[in-house]
Structure formats: structure tokens, C-alpha cells
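Long-time lurker, first post.

We've been arguing in lab meeting about whether adenosine-5'-diphosphate would sit comfortably in this protein at all. Half the group thinks yes, half thinks no, and nobody has a model to point at. So I'm putting the question to the forum: if I give you the sequence and the SMILES, can you give me back a predicted structure of the complex? Inputs are below. Any interpretation is welcome too.
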Amino acid sequence: MSAADTSWILTATALVLLMTLPGLGLFYAGLVQAKNVLSVLMHCIAIACLMSLVWVGGGYTLALTAGNDWIGGFSRIFLLGLDRDSVASGLPEALVVSFQMTFAIITPALMVGAFVERIRFGAVMLICALWLILVYVPVVHWVWGGGWLAKMGVIDFAGGIVVHVTAGVSALVIAVMLGARSGFPEKVLPPHAPWMVMVGASLLWVGWFGFNAGSALAANGNAAMAMLVTHISASTASIVWLVIEKLKFGKPSLVGFVTGTIAGLATITPASGTVGPLGGFALGLLGGVVCYFAVDLIKNRWKIDDSLDVLAVHGVGGATGTLALVLFAAPAIGGTGFAEGQTLLGQFGVQILGVGVTALWSIIATIAIVLVTRRLIGLRVTPDEETQGLDYAHHGETAYRL
Amino acid sequence: MSAADTSWILTATALVLLMTLPGLGLFYAGLVQAKNVLSVLMHCIAIACLMSLVWVGGGYTLALTAGNDWIGGFSRIFLLGLDRDSVASGLPEALVVSFQMTFAIITPALMVGAFVERIRFGAVMLICALWLILVYVPVVHWVWGGGWLAKMGVIDFAGGIVVHVTAGVSALVIAVMLGARSGFPEKVLPPHAPWMVMVGASLLWVGWFGFNAGSALAANGNAAMAMLVTHISASTASIVWLVIEKLKFGKPSLVGFVTGTIAGLATITPASGTVGPLGGFALGLLGGVVCYFAVDLIKNRWKIDDSLDVLAVHGVGGATGTLALVLFAAPAIGGTGFAEGQTLLGQFGVQILGVGVTALWSIIATIAIVLVTRRLIGLRVTPDEETQGLDYAHHGETAYRL
Amino acid sequence: MSAADTSWILTATALVLLMTLPGLGLFYAGLVQAKNVLSVLMHCIAIACLMSLVWVGGGYTLALTAGNDWIGGFSRIFLLGLDRDSVASGLPEALVVSFQMTFAIITPALMVGAFVERIRFGAVMLICALWLILVYVPVVHWVWGGGWLAKMGVIDFAGGIVVHVTAGVSALVIAVMLGARSGFPEKVLPPHAPWMVMVGASLLWVGWFGFNAGSALAANGNAAMAMLVTHISASTASIVWLVIEKLKFGKPSLVGFVTGTIAGLATITPASGTVGPLGGFALGLLGGVVCYFAVDLIKNRWKIDDSLDVLAVHGVGGATGTLALVLFAAPAIGGTGFAEGQTLLGQFGVQILGVGVTALWSIIATIAIVLVTRRLIGLRVTPDEETQGLDYAHHGETAYRL
Amino acid sequence: MKMIMAVIQPHRLDAVRDALEAINVHGLTASEVKGFGQQRGHKEIYRGAEYQINYVPKVKLEIVVADDILDDAVDAIQQAARQGRVGDGKIFVWDVETTIRIRTGESGEGAV
Amino acid sequence: MKMIMAVIQPHRLDAVRDALEAINVHGLTASEVKGFGQQRGHKEIYRGAEYQINYVPKVKLEIVVADDILDDAVDAIQQAARQGRVGDGKIFVWDVETTIRIRTGESGEGAV
Amino acid sequence: MKMIMAVIQPHRLDAVRDALEAINVHGLTASEVKGFGQQRGHKEIYRGAEYQINYVPKVKLEIVVADDILDDAVDAIQQAARQGRVGDGKIFVWDVETTIRIRTGESGEGAV
Ligand SMILES: Nc1ncnc2c1ncn2[C@@H]1O[C@H](COP(=O)(O)OP(=O)(O)O)[C@@H](O)[C@H]1O
Ligand SMILES: Nc1ncnc2c1ncn2[C@@H]1O[C@H](COP(=O)(O)OP(=O)(O)O)[C@@H](O)[C@H]1O
Ligand SMILES: Nc1ncnc2c1ncn2[C@@H]1O[C@H](COP(=O)(O)OP(=O)(O)O)[C@@H](O)[C@H]1O
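Top reply:
Settle the argument with this. Predicted structure of the protein with adenosine-5'-diphosphate, as C-alpha cells:
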């Protein structure tokens, strides 16, 4: 067990928690109307707490302890037997539990963007708890827990498949089943606080260093390169959005800019342990462009109210990175090469399979979860509550009293 | 001296500073009226600066260098003789000074919640400076500096007694002696920015990882477990508040939720080096419930204007954790057991003694400090200044100019 | 290569990024009018992204790889050849690139304060890109890359010359050439959100731990002492502003207080690897006083619209620290002494030379850059756009929709 | 000319504007106000303590119209703003002597 | 009917409302305004530079009442708002022709 | 006495105040309002989606003056507020019956 690696992963854990609390919270809260700010923040923090309990209760053991190809075992149910001397992956096992817990928090929290301003709070809680166990935990096991995708040599360093594809695809399913916000798309109001969106994006960026570089589970050159390519991709994708908006509308916006940032971060995530600086740049470029047009396609053309563009930015970004990383893995350009014995085409096949099966499973399971939730709790608030705003209607509070 | 441990404690120091600046600042500022926002932030940051100087001037040496059972020595007065090679607790001594300094900052800053919206700024400064030397520093020595409580084997990993009991009890004393805000309780206005309260709570949570896991003074399994149980307790207590509010009022609020978070964090603090995951959960449960009813008791029933519930959330939480930890220290459930040779009852006795004597000393010393301050500076602003708001009346500024 | 040091510098990199995003952004955004908030945030984050690309493209190699006395070489152009095994300064080279990149981000971002509320966005981008290559990169090479100042034994631990003098002096040049905001000084409006200024300052402070203590490039006593003296200086300078404002105006303000904080941080920056606690205190005292009167001189007397006082706070602070550190370097008071073989006077001469030549070069190069930019893009927005506010005029957005 | 001052529910603003446009009333000035009336405010609970929020957010419209379209305008507002619930609001009308368009200096009904 | 427009100190709002309730005036509309008058604004100092804030925050009340209670209402407001200091505010009164309750469409004094 | 209600561009407020001071009108009440008129709002684009912002931020002034200075006051406002562009605003005038100074209780033109 390395104290130096422990030191870095302790820090990384704090950084990933910072991504959700308050990073993602602010990012999303700034994008909604002033009357739904608290509701969005409540979603994020309540998800954080509930997912933590589900994770320590059963998620961790099912995801990351020895099991079969599809799911882990029960040896750490309720974290039984875990103490200060337990070791896993060369780190204190309590730290592995914690670090991975912060991933299990942010992944469902990403989905909040799909259903803001109209969903019942109880539905959020139930959907996310079921989703963690039925979607997130198995996919973690497949990819990171020694499951079937891991055995096939899928490359997903920090969660392109595990985090972004699962959350993005499921978010769209929920958005469709829940229905659009009243007045969508013509009468929906613009973001109430772009400044807050930027602050949230900044904290996400800083925290993402823990997310990606922490996924090395060590303080070494791999972590360092993951941090560097993460940064390069985020910078590049941001500037891509700037350029597109400048060309299309004449005025580059801050909200657009930081959406590019997040697109770049999501895209590099699966690749950050595999590519070098050039790959970081290329993936930022690609992710920026692809996500831009995905937003346009889903929201503005298909008219699906995935309100804060979870699929278009996270899902599409994560999938793009997962697939395109095979092009930039060559050691000649600073990459680490493929899984042992793999060719470019073979690796690409595995990556496609990983993305495809995960997306499919996410769709099926999420449909089931939403149907159950609709029956047990109901999904939508009443039209009056929607008009009034969820802050007061569901939480009895007002965000601003200036 | 371990570079790996140094690395983690450097980080932890930054995290604990983040708790006060801006974490606690935002948490408290969001809870007051818009006309007193800057005053609260000013309290937090001015306390941070002044306490730092008091700490390096004399606090550190009196608290943590060799002395007698009651107080430390003078060997490091003004940090004389401290250089880059000095070592303490297996770390650079300069780092120990800094890490502990961040505790000496946040502890008096916690008390701000008791006297917001009506106290004179000069009084805050004087009270806190005296309080640091007369209350905080001795108690640190008793518990962490080899003093009498340490010798008795008291368990207080990260400051249930040292931080939360001292600040909580003293806060109540100040609140009582200062008197309630005009119009309290009927005409007091609700929090002006619950969103800001949530952001502050989030930063407190993230920073608390440095507070509790940093208290291991090493990057090891103990730090990792401290982080994990801290997280579990915070999550659990938050959900406890959610459930109570849902049952009592039908609408779970964000402000309530994050108050639960802080209650859970305060409760686990003394226990975070001693209990395992189950203990984290149990203490979160207990702390959540106890603090909820403590708030109700002190503010709503006793009508004491401890405005932001410092005693009820911090003091009561810290005391609860300090006492209840004996129930969950068993190695069988991931705990570390008691101080050498202690039985459950014996340990409980020591814990009670620690809480009791500290509370008593805090009360006596704080009464004296407030009396002196009242005479030298005066405590309250004028009614006109209170109406006008402290931001303009005392700092000549306006928080929002939209 | 040390994993422990790597761990700390990974963290420090995240902390320095946090300084700009969102720290500096919020600090500056709170000081401008509500109609220019997004524009300021956009400047900060767009600079962050563009400078990152310039840095990895050519800045790093020209600044920090082997070259001549004046400029580095081309061995790492586009980071060619950099991979996970590359090592520099005992750390993964990718990490050195990243850590230094965060400095290359914040230094031009500091200049934003000089030209807010009236500059064209494109001009900001062009000026900063040219400036990074022509001013920042050479000076880094001179001082930290083995260039002529390094050879003379100049002491600039974390960037008094490299960061603060370059940015401060250049900021003034830009402010003068751009011209004042319309209505300056009589009709300029006060900061729109002092609370936001404080939050930004707090994040800057926390991040500055990474900046200064990270500059040790190791997790050791040197890093620890750098953190401690940084903290002491910040605390002291803050209180200096408090006292001055209390004496002059009767009401100490929050904006003033945190301006003192930043002054203290800038002043200690070059000295943080050289002085002990007493030096930290003395430099805080000195920096606080000098910067206070510098603000008054430049803005209120000379009537130069360096809008957010970049020269007065950063430039003057950094220069003061660079020069005054010679007085507090003695080992007897916890310092590390001078460069080998240097006397106090000799060292002072080198420091003056460093500050002077850097300032001169910054002036000349910045004048050229601004002239080029004026010709290519134009500097100022139209008076109508200035009235309307840059948020809508240039970015098509509104910061607050409450 | 007449001043019509209408206090309405904020979310009816768009509907009222549309209704006025439909009868060719193109100018109006709106502001956010706090209403006190039969519709009571609401309670908020923070940390177990109840806070009575006495006011209700409303939008106030001020519309100056020529005498001959007063009735149509009032009808349009009343119908568009109406939801049949307490708190729908009020319309007040009074006489205006002069109207001046700042840009041109012209006055009278043409300036409305 | 009469319109009473009163500009008062913000912190007197509750007192004025209570006074009006006491004489059975239950409806009013309040807004936050900036006052300019004999009461000067204040100065704020940021980083040594002085900023003159010219306006004073005030609350404006608009209350339509039946003619016969006008005097009582004006008295109630004046007494409740009064502190005897510059800046206490003003009351203006003018004639209102019609009042309509949006919910019911009823008009005249009954709608007030 | 007369009420002058003027809706102007926010950045002309200072000029208008100066112009009024110049003719010895020292009291006025200002508020932030949303204007709808010939001047259209603007579009904002977030993530490629267009949002039409219908209203234009304006400042509304309410100034009660004695009858004999009405014309001067209106002229002063009109000239100070005028930029010659659509959206410059409007001035409306009506009759005020009574004015009361809360501080002193005095009423009539002296109270203005
Ligand atoms: N006499 C009045 N003078 C001024 N404004 C009034 C008056 N009565 C009501 N209002 C305004 O109209 C709003 C709606 O009135 P309310 O009595 O709540 O419901 P309703 O109009 O359905 O009877 C109030 O919130 C207030 O702003
Ligand atoms: N002629 C006026 N027209 C409109 N509002 C006025 C007028 N005079 C005063 N006010 C309002 O009344 C407020 C109080 O007036 P001021 O002259 O400051 O004190 P006082 O009412 O005590 O004489 C002002 O801030 C302004 O909002
Ligand atoms: N009939 C009206 N009633 C009330 N306010 C009006 C009326 N017409 C215009 N306004 C106000 O005056 C402002 C300016 O009017 P607008 O038609 O845009 O330009 P202009 O005054 O130059 O013709 C509007 O934004 C609105 O606030």
C-alpha cells in the first residue's frame, strides 16, 4: 500500500465530490428559472446523499468485489468486514469505496439536467436509487470490476461508458417519458444566471482533475498525463464552441463556451489514460463539434426536452471519446497503445460493443424504472405547481429574497 | 518525516481553509437578510485573519508545545526558531502550525452564527481574540496537546469537544448576553438566499474531508476510514432531516436538508478516527435526529436567538458524537476500540467529563469575555443601524446592486 | 521521481486552476457593474483556454526547456515526444507542463482587471496570446528556466517578477492605451456584488497555497513553510487595510479587506521560499501599506483607469516582495539566506535589476502588442455598447434574470 | 386619454399583452409589485420556524389609451387576466390630460 | 373612488398595512422604488474612491379607496409612516373613475 | 398639482434629474419597469436556441409638481431624455388633488 498514492486519491475523492457539490449543482441551477433553483440544488445534494447510502449498502459490493461476468459478489454488503487495514487496488479499501462513491454520486446527478422544472421530488429519489443498482452498478462491474467488457479489453479509463453513456442515454429516456416542460420549446425561458453556470463549470473542471487523474489510482506519470490531456481537451472544445457561435451568431456566449468545456471534459474522460497531448487536442476538437450539433439536433430539431442537454453533451461526448480514442492511442503520439494483443479495428469493435450494449441496457432498464416510478409515485408535478415553481411548490422556499 | 503524509496534510490544510473561506461564510451569509450579507462575510474573513495572527503569535505554542497538564509552553512564541527543517508529529512543523491554524480559524468563526445582524464589528474581533486564547487554546492543549484529558484517554479525533462543544456552548452564551435581534422571533425575516446556504454547506462538506481525514496526520487507512465515515454520517443525517420535514410539514426544504448535513458532519467529527462504516451511519442517524429537536428546543421553544443555531447544530452534534462514539468503537464493526485499558463505561465517563468540563469552562470564560467586551467596546449596534443593516451601517457597502 | 511529490503537485495544479476558475473570475466580476459580469467571466475562462493551447503549443518549450540565456529551445514544440514516462524536475514532465500551465493562465488573466467594461473581446484574446509568447514566456525562461536572471541568482520563488510585475505593469500600459471607462472617475458605478468579490478572494487565497507551496515542486518543509508564510502575509495585509480604512473612513469595508488579502498574497509570492514566519508578517505589513497607497496614487490621484487596480495590487505587491525579501532572508529568523555567495546588497541589486528589466520589457512589448491589436481588431467597444453593457452587446446574454 | 392600471398574476402577462395587441394597443409599461388583498401570502418554514410571507408577487400594467378604445382595452385585459380565482387582480382607470412622445415631442392622442 | 399613492420608508410598510387593516382597507399594491428628495442618498467608499449613491430606497403604495374613507385612510398612512425625520415620504391623491375586479368583472366601489 | 409620469431610457435618468434640479424640482420617485412599445426587445441565444426577450428595461419617473411649473418640467424632461431614437419614452400628465408631506402633515402645493 502506497502512502503517496493514498494521499493523491484522498485528494481526488474530495475533488470529485466538489464536482457535484456544488459544481454540478450550480451549473444546472444557473440554467433553470429563478423559481426552480432550489429544486435543482436539492436534486443534486439529495441524490448525493441517497446514492452514498445505496453505494455503501450494496452498490460497492455488487460493482467492485469478485463476482461473475455480470455482477459482483456480496462479500462487502453493508461494508461488513471493512476496517482500517483492508486494502484494495494498493490503497486502503475504505478509500476505494469513497473514491468510487463520488462517481456513483455524480453519475445519476448528471441526469438531473433532463428532468428539471417539472418532476416530482420523490420520483427523482426513487428513479435514481433504482437506477444506481440496475444500471450503474452492473456497468461498473462490466467495465471496471472485471466483468465481461473488462475481459474483452474495453478501454474506458474514467467513465465514458460507465458514467456518460449510462447517464446520457437514460436521461433522454426519462425526458421523453416525463414529457416536455409546459410551453416547450417556444415559451421556455432562458437561463436565469449564466454567471452561476460558469462558476459551476469551473468547479466541474477543477474537480474533473480528480475524476480523470484520480482514475489512475496512483500519483504517477499516468495520472499526470491524464490531467494534462483532460485540460487540453476542455480548452480546445471550449474554443470550438466559441468559434462556432462566433461564426453562426456573431456573439460568442459564456453559456455556450462552458458547455463546450463540459463537452470536452466528457469526451476525454474514457481516453484520458490512453492518449497523449495530441490525442487530447484532437478529442477536444471532435467532442466540441459533435456535441454542438448534437444539442442542436436533439433539442432544436427533434424537439425533445432533455432540458439541460444531458444526452447531447455528456452521452454523446462520452461515446465519441470512447470510440475515437482508438485513433489516438498510438505510442508515437504519446498514447499507451491498445489492450494487449488488440488491433485498431479489434479495439474499435470492442469499444462499439461496449457503448452499444451499455446504451441498450440503459434504455431498457430506465424505461422499466420510470414505469414503476410513475405507478408508485407519479412523475410530474401539477401544472399549477409548475407555474408556481418547484422551489415553493415542493420545498416551500424561495431562492432569492433581495 | 514522510513526504506522502506531508503531501496529504498540505492538501488538508487548504481544504480546511476552504471550509471557512468561503464555505462557512456562504453558509451563514445565505441565512441572514440581504442587508447583513457583507457583515457576516466580513466576520468570517476578519476572524480568519486575526485568529491566524493570534495563533502564530502565541496560540500555537500554548496549545501544542510541551507544557503542563493545563497549558503548553512558550518555546515557539511568535514561532521563534521555526524553520524549514523543524519537524513535529512526523511532519514539517510549519505544516502542523498551518493545519492547526485552520482549526483555530473555523472554531471561533462558527460562533458568528449566534450573533449576526446586531453585533458591533469591533466586539466580534475582541471577543474572538480573547476567546481563542482563553477557551480554544487551553482545550486544544487538554485534548490534543498532551494535557489532562489526553492523559485520561479522551477520544476526540477531529474536534467534537475541542471545536464543536467550545464554539457551540460559547455561542449560546454570547447570544443570550447580546440579546435577540429586534423583532425576534415573530418578525425576523427568512433566509435571503437558500441557494447560497447550499453552496456553503457543500464546500463545508468537501472541506470537512480535510478536517477529519486530515486529523489522521497521515495518508493511511485511518485517514481513508475517517473520510468514509464522515461522508456516510453527513449523508445519513441529511436524509434524516429530509424525512422529518417531509413528515412534519409535507415539504422537505433545502435549508433543512443541508442543516442536516452539517449536523451529521459535526456529530461524526470526534468519532471519525474511531468508528467504522456502521458507526458512521448510526452517528448520522442519531446526530440528525438530536440536532433537529435541539434547534426546535432552543430557538422555537426557549426563544433564544442563537440566530443560525450554532449550539443546536454544532455544539449538540459534537457532544452527541463524542458521547455516542463509545457505542460504535468495537473492532467487530470496523472500529478501533477504546483508549488502552479502557472499558465502555470507563471511556464513557471520560467522554462525559471532557464534554462537561469543556462546556463549563467555555461558559465561564465566555461570560467574562463578553463582560469585558461590553465594557470596552459595547456589544450591540444601535436600533437604527440594525434597521438599516450592518452592511451599510458598519462597512459602508451594499451586497447587491443588480 | 517521487510519488509523494507528484501527489502534492497534482493537487497544487488543481488549486492554481481554481484560482482563475472561478476565483479570479468572481473576484473581478463582483467589482464590475451587473451588465458586464459575464464579459469579465468570459475573459477569464477564454484566456484560460487560449493560453493553455498557446502554452502546450509553444510556450512551455520556449520557457522551460534548454535554450540560451534569453529563451528556451524547441525540443517540446507541440509537446512532441512527451509521454507518461517523461520526467522533469523529479516529477512526471506532463505534470510540470500542467502545473506551469496554470501559471500561464492566471498571469494574463490578472490583466483583465485593467480593461474591463470597455474592451472588445477579440482584442483581449489577441493581446493575451501575443503577450504570453512575447512577455510571459521569456521572463519565465529568464527567471525559472535557467536564463540570465537565474544565473545571476535572482530570487523569485513563485512569481513576484514572473507573474505580478509582468502582469501589473502591462495592465497599466493597456489601461492607458485603451482609455478610461466613459464617465471615469466621477460617474463610474461601485462594485455590483461585494459578496462575490469576497468569495473570489477566498478561492484565490486557498488556491494560492497551491501556487506558492506548489512552487517547492515537492512535499517537504519548504512547501510547508511557503504555505505558512503565505497565510501569515495574507492575514496581516488584510488587517492592515482594515486598520487604514477604519482610521481614514471610520468604516472598514469588505472589499477593502479582501483587497488587502490579495495584496498580501502578491507580496509574499516571490519571498515564500526564502523567508520565515517573521518575514511573512513583515512583508504582509509592508505589502498592505504600500499597495493601499499605490491604489490611491494611481486611481484616485493620477486618474488612470486601471479599473480593478491590477498594477497597484499585483504589480506593486509583487515588486515590493521581490525587493524587500532580502531583508528577511536571514536564517536567524527562519529564512533560507541568499543565493550562493551573495551579500545583502548584491542580492538587492540583482532583485532590482530583475524587477526593472522585466518591467521595462513588459512596457515595450505590451505597447507593441496593443498597437498591433488596435490596427488588426480595434480596442474599444462603441459608446453605445459600453452603455448597454458588454454582456448583451458582445455575448448576447444577461447575467441575472431574477 | 385614460390611464388603465391593472394588477394581474405574473404568469398572465403574456396573455394580456397578446390580447391588447389584438385590439391594436401596442404600448404598455409593466412592473413587478407586491400585492396585498384577499389572496393571502404563504408560509415558509426554515429549520422548523414558520415565516409568514405576506405579499403576493403581481405584475402591474400601466397603459394609456385613447378614450374611444378604453372599454375594449379594459375588456381585453379582464378576459385575458381572468382565471376565476382569488388574486386575479384589479383594474383601475383614470383620466390623463396630456401625453407626450419624448422622441418627437408630439403630444395628444397621437402620442399614445 | 380615489387613488392614494404613498411613498414611505421601507421599514414602515408593516406598520402602514396594519393601520390600514384597522380601518378596513384590505387591498393595496406595493413596489420598491428609488426616492430622490430632500433626504440625500449616501456615500460608499470602495478602495479609497468615493461613490455617491443618489437614491434612497423607498416603498411606494398604491391604494384605491372609496371616497368616503379617503380621509381616514390618508390619516392612517400618515400617522403610521411618520417618524418625524426627513425622508418620511409623501402622499398623493387623485381621482379614479372606474375599478374592476378581474375575477368577477364587477365594477365600481364594490370592486375596490 | 399635476402628476408627471415619464417612462425613459435608464441611462438618461441622471440627465433628467439634473434638468429638473435646474428648474428647482427636487422631488421625484423612480422605479425600474419593463417597457413594451414600438421599440422591440432583443433576442438571446443559449446553446443554439433563440429566446425572444420581449421587454425593454426602462425607468419610470413619477413627479408631482405645482400647476404653474408643469410646462417647464415637462419640457425639461422631454429634452433631457430625448436621444431621437425609438424607445426614448413617453410622458403622461394628470391631475392630482392632494399632496401631503408625511413628516409634517402639511398638505397642498407646499408639500410637493
Ligand atoms: N384597493 C386596492 N388598491 C390597490 N391595489 C389593490 C386593491 N385591492 C387589490 N389590489 C391589488 O390587487 C391584487 C389582487 O387582489 P385580491 O384582493 O387578492 O384578489 P381579487 O382581485 O381576486 O379580489 C392585490 O394583490 C393587490 O395588488
Ligand atoms: N414631488 C415629488 N414627486 C414624486 N415623489 C416625490 C416628490 N417629492 C418627494 N417624493 C418622494 O418622497 C420621498 C421623500 O421625500 P423627501 O423630500 O426626501 O423627504 P420629506 O418627505 O420628509 O420631505 C422621496 O424620496 C421621493 O421618493
Ligand atoms: N400607451 C402607453 N402606455 C403606457 N406606457 C407606454 C405606452 N406607450 C409606450 N409606453 C412606454 O414607453 C416606452 C417607449 O415607447 P416606444 O413605443 O418603444 O418608443 P417611443 O416612445 O420612442 O415611440 C415603452 O417601452 C413603454 O414602457
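For your lab meeting: The first helix of chain B runs from residue 3 to 31. The radius of gyration of chain B is 20 Å. Whichever side wins, do check it experimentally.
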